[in-house]
Every structure is written in structure tokens, then in C-alpha cells.
Amino acid sequence: MKIKVLYFAALREALGSSGETLELPAGVTTLAGVRALIANRGGDWDRLAQMKNLRAAVNQRMAEPETAIADGDEVAFFPPVTGG
Amino acid sequence: MSVSVQQADFDIGAEIDALLAGRTDVGAVATFSGLVRDINDGSGVHAMTLEHYPGMTEAALEDIVAQARSRWDILAVRVIHRVGTLQPADRIVLVIVAGSHRGEAFAACEFIMDYLKTRAPFWKREDTPEGSRWVDARDSDDSAAQRWMQQG
């Protein structure tokens, strides 16, 4: 199962990446699973685990840790929003 | 075209005129505009850059407008949010709500701003004499959005 992952704002800068295509191993089926998979790479990627107020979207809608992930989904991780 | 995310500035008067063009049923127009301040959290701000999530930002704004329309009997809505690099005193955001009476126009305008601040994917970065920094989300913005949930 392949998904697109995007990073925004302070998180994008800290990771030095605005996004990537990710092949998910069997068993990774939720947003929480994707987050853990990326954080477990260690180094700067551990920020995904450390950021208490991390927000996420799946297919451009705000999502929760238990949100299911399917092939072709667009997942985004970002800090709390500060528009307006 | 009730929602726009754009780099360009906007003309508040022209936007109100465009929203009301051809209508004779509007009795109240509530407008909110947000500007770049030259000071935030004790530091001088000489520029601000707004990042957004293209696609999701527009969808989130459309959703917020739809929620306002389902809560109040309002007639027309316009939301514009700028992105890119802005200077102090530049306009950032505009919300216009037209209704039959002021009560629903005021309420829907405030609701849209409160929800926009916590739900629409925009991020501000400020340039200050101490360097560039990302703006932290405020707890007060979360509580402002929360109170609409309690009012059901």
C-alpha cells in the first residue's frame, strides 16, 4: 500500500522535507501507525513522536490517530494552525 | 466564489459591493478584517509569511462557511485569506456576512473567524530583529472556537 505524506510549516523545516511517497508495510492501517512508522526512523524524524500538539489530515480533512489509511491516501502532518 | 486564498491584496468596499450586487433582500452586512501588527509577544515584526496547504485550505474554508450557513439564516458570505509575505498594516483576512438582520450577520461573522483560526491550515512565520520564528497557536483561539460547540 502506497501513500503520499506531506509536512508543513515548522515541521517541514525541522525535517528538511515537504513530503514523500511511502510504502506501508502490512499491519500499518491507521494514522497513528503511519506516524509511528516515520518517527521510528530516528534522528529528526523522532519529532513526529515528540510533538505533543501534532495535527494531521487524511485526504485533506482533519483526522484522528485512529483514522484508517487506504492505498493512495494523502496524509499530512503539521503544527496547530495559526491563520486569521 | 465565496472563498479565496490569494497573494494579492483585496479592496473591502469592492468586495462588499460585489457580494451585494443585484440584491435587495439584505438588511445587514457584518465585516471583519485582520491586519499584520508590527509587534507580537514583545518583539517587533517587520514581515510575516503565511504558508498554507493548497486544496485543504480552500476546502476547510468552504466547510466553515457551510457550517455558518446551516446555523444562521444568512444570505451571502465572502471569505478572503492572503498567503505569502506581508508587511505590517497589510490586510491578511476578510470575512463579510450579509443577512436580513444584524444579529445573525454579527454572529456568523464571529463564528467564521473563530473556526478559521483553529481549523483552516494556515501557518504564520514572523521576521523579528531576533530572527525568524513560527507563531505558536494560542489557547484562547481554541476556547473561542469551543464556545460555539457548547452553544450547540
The helix-strand sequence of chain B is: EHEEEEHEEEHEEH
What Rg of chain A do the Cα atoms give?
12 Å
- Which strand order do you get reading across the main beta sheet of chain A? 2-1-5-3-4
The major β-sheet of chain A equals:
5 strands, mixed
Structural class of chain A: alpha+beta
Poorly predicted runs of chain A are none
Mean pLDDT of chain B: 94
Low-pLDDT residue spans of chain B: none
How many H/I helices of chain A? Answer: 3
Strand content of chain B: 35-45%
Contiguous helical run count of chain B: 4
Identify the overall geometry of chain B.
globular
Beta-strand fraction estimate of chain A: 25-35%
Strand segment tally of chain A: 5
Show the helix and strand layout:
The complex is a heterodimer of chains A (84) and B (152).
Chain A (H helix, E strand, L loop, with lengths): L1 E6 L1 H7 L3 E5 L7 H9 L7 H4 L4 E4 L2 E2 L11 E5 L6
Parallel strand pairs in A: 1-5
Antiparallel strand pairs in A: 1-2, 3-4, 3-5
Chain B lengths: L2 E4 L5 H9 L7 E8 L3 E2 L2 E2 L2 E6 L3 H16 L2 E9 L1 E3 L4 E9 L2 H18 L2 E7 L2 E4 L4 H12 L2
Parallel strand pairs in B: 1-6
Antiparallel strand pairs in B: 2-8, 3-4, 5-7, 5-9, 6-8, 9-10
Helix pairs in contact in B: 2-3, 3-4
Task: Please provide a written account of the structure.
The complex is a heterodimer of chains A (about 80) and B (about 150). A 5-stranded mixed beta sheet of chain A has the order 2-1-5-3-4. Helix content of chain A is about 25%, strand content about 25%. The model of chain A has no long low-confidence stretch (mean pLDDT about 95). Chain A is globular. Chain A is α+β, with helices and mostly antiparallel strands. Chain B is α+β, with helices and mostly antiparallel strands and about 150 residues long. In chain B, helix 2 packs antiparallel against helix 3 and helix 3 crosses helix 4 (about 140-150). Chain B is built from 4 helices and 10 strands. Chain B is globular, with a radius of gyration of 16 Å. In chain B, the strands form 3 sheets. Chain B has a 4-stranded mixed beta sheet, with helices on both faces. In chain B, strands 7-5-9-10 form a 4-stranded antiparallel beta sheet, with no helix packed on it. In chain B, strand 3 and strand 4 form a beta hairpin. The relative contact order of chain B is 0.23. The interface of A and B includes residues 78 and 79 of A.
